[in-house]
Design the sequence.
């Protein structure tokens, strides 16, 4: 197996890692989008059991990605996992920027099509505190490691625009089940995160910003 992975072309490895890490998210997104097109708009319920399963799948996906990376000789030291107080503060500021972007996108969507944002809020949360903590600890690390770090590191040979745009578009595509507003918000978030990561190659502020944003979202939709 190691020999096969070592000899695979880089594009094949890229697709393989994405499939291993996101088969479940892509499948669920397709089903939910199909339901919306059929007029079924049942909210996605984040409960303890499904969040626990999701976090396990995400951690396993990261483990597989790191295992493949070690076989391929990737230098994970360059990815920027190391935390610091300065980077934590940067993450807090970045979260405020992202919140402003989300509010701006929502306001623009409502101005163009009144009620668009309300109709796209298809989330409910019934998470207990331990599973809420688990969610905001695991999911941001998984998503930013994969959707920012992995994309930029894998595609950087094609230049900044290709790497950042591919990262942002992939992130946005995973949220189509939440409607057009969520797609726009995640596309903008992906572009901002991608450009920041391209310049400084630090994932820690992205982890912090994403975790704080998710925490606000889940508290907002708790038992909604």
Sequence:
């Amino acid at each position: 197996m190691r020999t096969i992975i070592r000899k695979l072309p880089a594009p094949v490895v890229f697709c393989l890692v994405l499939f291993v890490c996101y088969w479940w998210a892509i499948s669920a997104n397709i089903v939910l989008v199909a339901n919306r097109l059929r007029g079924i708009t049942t909210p996605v319920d984040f409960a303890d059991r499904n969040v626990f399963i999701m976090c396990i799948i995400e951690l396993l996906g990261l483990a597989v990605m790191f295992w493949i990376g070690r076989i391929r000789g990737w230098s994970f030291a360059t990815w920027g996992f190391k935390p610091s107080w300065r980077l934590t503060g940067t993450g807090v500021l970045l979260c405020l920027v992202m919140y402003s972007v989300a509010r701006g996108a929502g306001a623009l969507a409502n101005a163009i099509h009144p009620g668009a944002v309300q109709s796209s809020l298809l989330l409910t949360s019934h998470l207990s505190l331990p599973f809420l903590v688990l969610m905001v600890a695991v999911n941001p690390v998984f998503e930013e490691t994969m959707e920012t770090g992995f994309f930029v590191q894998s595609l950087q040979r094609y230049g900044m625009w290709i790497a950042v745009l591919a990262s942002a578009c992939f992130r946005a595509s995973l949220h189509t089940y939440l409607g057009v507003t969520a797609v726009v918000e995640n596309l903008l978030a992906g572009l901002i995160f991608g450009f920041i990561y391209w310049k400084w190659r630090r994932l820690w502020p992205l982890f912090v910003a994403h975790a704080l944003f998710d925490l606000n979202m889940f508290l907002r939709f708790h038992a909604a």
